[in-house]
Amino acid sequence: MKKQYAIIGLGRFGNSVALTLVNAGHEVLAIDADEDRVQRIADCVTHAVVADSTEENTLKSLGIRNFDIVIVAIGQNVQASVLTTLLLKELGVNYVVAKADNSLHGKMLEKVGADKVVFPERDMGQRIAHNLMSTNVIDYLEVAPDLGIIEVDVPQELLNVRLLDTNLRADYGITVLAIRRNGKMTLSPNPGERFLPDDKLILVGEGSGIQRFEEKYF
Ligand code: ADP
């Protein structure tokens, strides 16, 4: 279903979020205090306005509370980011996503009522670091504190082994969410499934378990 989004702050992150949502067919209002930034995106989004999001009346006059989701993509100016998030929640916005540059910033955003706090730089750093530590790691995503999803090439040692014989759960606390084979994804594979060459495994587990798994197999 088509949703209405407002993005406040048109830096690299805000721009990327706004354009992705537009490409997916959603309505996007883009807001920034900087006129150049607003002009640059104006042709690509539904509406674009120059406004200071720390002014309550400005937010009201934009009808901000009618948007399904508002994304606060102000990173460096922590004060503006926190104040904006607070005002949005006070004005009754249903769902506010706020970007944090560090954990203290994240805590403040949670305190003032952000429904979701995202850490794009930290997440991307983790993904790239996991990918660099082992060429067999295709992707890594932290889904909750100390809970990660990782995509890896099937380890050599597990070739032709049945899932139920791998002991991944007992030894590493790891569950196989899916197998990607010839571009096709099999969710919750059967315990009797054997791993084949070129399989990609999508695993979920605690960070420490995933780390031990990587050390053992790669
Ligand atoms: P990124 O790291 O994603 O590039 P930045 O923190 O550099 O993000 O960019 C944040 C954007 O938010 C800037 O374009 C800035 O003009 C905008 N911004 C900062 N404070 C406000 C505010 N009070 N109202 C509206 N936009 C703001």
UniProtKB/TrEMBL annotation:
- Any idea where the RCK C-terminal domain is? 135-218
Domain named RCK N-terminal is located at 2-118
Write down what this protein is called. Uncharacterized protein
One Pfam family here: TrkA_N
Could you read off the lineage of the organism from its UniProt record?
Bacteria, Bacillati, Bacillota, Negativicutes, Veillonellales
Q: Single Gene Ontology BP term?
A: potassium ion transport
GO MF, one example: monoatomic cation transmembrane transporter activity
Native species? Lucifera butyrica
SUPFAM superfamilies noted in UniProt: NAD(P)-binding Rossmann-fold domains (SSF51735), TrkA C-terminal domain-like (SSF116726)
Top-rank taxon, per record: Bacteria
InterPro entries referenced in this protein's UniProt entry, alphabetically = NAD(P)-bd_dom_sf, RCK_C, RCK_C_sf, RCK_N, Trk_Ktr_HKT_K-transport
